[in-house]
């Protein structure tokens, strides 16, 4: 025969019941995130102990509550990463190259540090130490990229209610080491042109001679300020040689997604990056040559292309340029060096706002900080102004 269970009162919404052997049961009805009411209970030797255990259970239940049931505070960090990547794909807002970069940074930079932790074990202190160590042992840039993807993933954990707050938010701010944008001088540009133009063109060199496209790509980068991917994505229909000066529409970029063929993406890095630029005569001449080479092709045909008429990859162009210039004793030059050179030249003549417009930046501050070489020369008009401080002729003063 079951022993009687006598109600002994309630405490707010909590109901207490005396059970056999002096045990007290505390229970309460709670509404879960699915809208349903469920009963939660706990037991103790006293009313106070039962209430304390019930509140602990309710607290843990709040920790475990999720909108989808897929993530809890005790889930592994690896599980979060898998869900985060799936979420990125569901949103579909990232360019394939950016999506690939996020996954690479997560797996190579972040996962080795956090893969053995559960979500509840990832604290502000752990994240802060990780980011600082990465900035010290690797680079500021890697630390910044790791911080970005870690914050995005943990932000998803917050949205799933697996974490109460994002630990990345309260970490110390990353301090960027001082850097200085360096533009190429005219002598350096000419030396680069000569090195590329003369590469493997000596008599008796084995194999087919270069097709001359790298020389022309450099002239287009110098005349448009475009990124290397934007230059390689220029099509026949993007060039207008019927106007003066010749114009080029920059409206795409070349991408090489992992596991997929290299192709032209129909938009550049940002919406602001889509622009039509007028080009100088030396760039216009190169473009006329390229148009003549593809006169029989359709308007969508790329200006620069491989021997099979497929897109050139940005990595191959970078490697070829680096190999040629290293051989010529001109290290440290990358395609972006030409972009900084254009920004600096335009800034000197027309100001940072015009340079930002040319480069397709949303703000001239970005152009100033990362692309324009600082001008240490003060306007010489100051010498004329300061003539007013010259010593006065003492004989004139006596008169």
UniProtKB/TrEMBL annotation:
CDD domains the UniProt entry points to: INT_ICEBs1_C_like
Pfam families found in the cross-reference section: Phage_int_SAM_3, Phage_integrase
Transmembrane residue ranges: none
Keywords in alphabetical order: DNA integration, DNA recombination, DNA-binding
Residues annotated as domain Tyr recombinase: 179-384
Domain Core-binding (CB): 75-158
GO process terms (BP): DNA integration; DNA recombination
Chain residue ranges for the region called Disordered: 252-275
Highest taxon above the source species: Bacteria
Bias (Basic residues) ranges: 261-272
Coiled coil feature spans: none
Keyword DNA-binding: yes
One example GO MF annotation: DNA binding
Family per similarity comment: Belongs to the 'phage' integrase family.
Name under which the protein is recorded: Site-specific recombinase XerD
Highest classification ranks of the organism: Bacteria, Bacillati, Actinomycetota, Actinomycetes, Micrococcales
């Amino acid at each position: 025969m079951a022993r009687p269970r006598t109600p002994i009162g309630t405490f707010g919404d909590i109901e207490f019941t005396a059970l056999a052997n002096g045990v007290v049961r505390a229970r309460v009805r709670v509404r879960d995130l699915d809208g349903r009411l469920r009963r939660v209970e706990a037991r103790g030797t006293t009313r106070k102990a039962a209430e304390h255990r019930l509140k602990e259970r309710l607290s843990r239940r709040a920790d475990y509550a999720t909108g989808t049931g897929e993530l809890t505070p005790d889930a592994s960090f690896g599980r979060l990463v898998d869900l985060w990547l799936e979420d990125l794909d569901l949103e579909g807002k990232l360019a394939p190259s950016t999506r690939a970069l996020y996954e690479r940074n997560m797996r190579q930079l972040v996962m080795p540090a956090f893969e053995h932790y559960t979500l509840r074990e990832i604290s502000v202190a752990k994240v802060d130490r990780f980011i600082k160590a990465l900035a010290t042992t690797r680079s500021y840039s890697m630390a910044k990229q790791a911080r970005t993807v870690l914050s995005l993933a943990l932000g998803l954990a917050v949205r799933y209610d697996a974490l109460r707050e994002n630990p990345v938010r309260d970490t110390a701010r990353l301090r960027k080491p001082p850097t200085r944008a360096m533009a190429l001088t005219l002598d350096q540009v000419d030396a680069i042109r000569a090195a590329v133009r003369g590469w493997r063109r000596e008599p008796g060199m084995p194999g087919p001679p270069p097709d001359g496209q790298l020389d022309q790509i450099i002239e287009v980068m110098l005349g448009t300020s475009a990124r290397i991917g934007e230059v390689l994505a220029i099509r026949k229909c993007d060039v207008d040689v019927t106007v003066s000066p010749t114009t080029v529409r920059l409206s795409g970029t070349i991408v090489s997604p992992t596991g997929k063929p290299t192709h032209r993406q129909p938009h550049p890095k940002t919406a602001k990056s889509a622009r039509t630029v007028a080009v100088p005569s030396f760039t216009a001449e190169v473009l006329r040559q390229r148009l003549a080479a593809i006169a029989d092709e359709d308007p969508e045909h790329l200006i620069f292309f491989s021997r099979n008429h497929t897109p050139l990859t940005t990595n191959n162009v970078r490697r070829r340029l680096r190999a040629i210039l290293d051989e010529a004793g001109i290290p440290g030059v990358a395609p972006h060096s030409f972009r900084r050179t254009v920004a600096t030249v335009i800034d000197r003549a027309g100001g940072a706002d015009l340079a930002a417009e040319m480069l397709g930046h949303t703000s001239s501050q970005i152009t100033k900080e990362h692309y324009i070489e600082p001008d240490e020369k003060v306007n010489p008009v100051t010498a004329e102004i300061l003539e007013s401080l010259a010593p006065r002729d003492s004989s004139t003063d006596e008169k």
